[in-house]
Amino acid sequence: MYEHEMNKSLYSKDLKPAFSSYKKAIVFESSELFVPYLHVVLLSLLDHVCHGNKYDIIILTHEIDIHDCENLIQLVSKFDNVRLRFFDPTGIVESYIKKSRYKYLDINYYRMALPWILSEYEIVLNLGADIVINKDVNLLLECEEVKNRYLAGVTDLGYLGRLNLDIPIKELDLSAPEGYVNADVLVINLKKIRQDFSKETVMNIWQKYRFRCAEQDAFNVLFDGKIHYLNLRWNLFPERMSSVEHIMLNKPERIKQWREALKEPFIIHYAAYPKPWDYPNVGFGNVWWQYARKSVYYEEIVRRMCLASVKSEYFRKQIWIRRWGDVFFPRGTKRRKVLNLIFPKQSKQRELVKKIYYTFFSNPNKEWNKKFGKY
């Protein structure tokens, strides 16, 4: 949908607590593309609500059309203690997006501006759309320790592993790099942030750094030393995903904690890739799909998965540069290690080679290019 065709009649004009004096909310930032996966997350969230608690759910977006809004609202219609609303925060962050020295996704700016977007709220639980919830999330909103901290989150074992691989430990200049938290499950003390920071101070961080992980890095830099750490079960990276490679580079005691958390995850986070909607055999992929089968978007999710499979097969055959690379630089050899040192992941030189390649080669499927971009 183009912006001028959008029907935003179901969007809220302003955001006030849905339950009078209850000033806590659950917040998602979403694009139109992610609506089917957000629908799955909400199904899992609602499956674990407690009738004695209140759930004020807010979706920050500028591109979800009325049809999808109605589908999402329908999910909560039978719950007396759950509200779901949409809000477009573009007017609040637009000036910062335009003047930002480095460009990120709009939703990255939404997260950083939450204390001022939700100016009448005190605490929010901010969640990503690539998760499945196995526990009542109200337990996080009632976390007492966050009252004296800016954030409560889970240590990102994938990032910590990469500190031993390809991320310089001094890159963010954190006082305790081993305390770096993941941003897709965060309890944020909006009231305390507003007390101690101005909006300009927080939002101008986009002018100072070129972040590898956008608002996740920004949160860790801004609130360094003022973060409460949640149990690993509240943001668990499953097995059979790319993140496992980095998790295994952690200290033995952290790996042991991760394996223990795998026995009873509260929130499963399909961080990095592959996502369960592209490859169902990821760890706990069956949990995600048990909710996906209940979604009104089930057929669309399956269609996209088929499209991804076709694309993957096409590129397996067509990306000759990778095939020849495996011939001349076999995996596990010293030659391959030297090549990775010269062209490390996310480095400028590697990105330049990719841009040159995609100047001449692209997926002929126009729908794929529009939806998912070129790989």
Automatic annotation (TrEMBL):
Metal-binding found in the keyword field: yes
Pfam families per UniProt: Glyco_transf_8
Source species, domain of life: Bacteria
Gene3D superfamilies: Spore Coat Polysaccharide Biosynthesis Protein SpsA, Chain A
Any one GO molecular-function label of the UniProt entry: metal ion binding
Keywords carried by this UniProt record: Glycosyltransferase, Metal-binding, Transferase
Designated name of the protein: Glycosyltransferase family 8 protein
Organism: Megasphaera stantonii
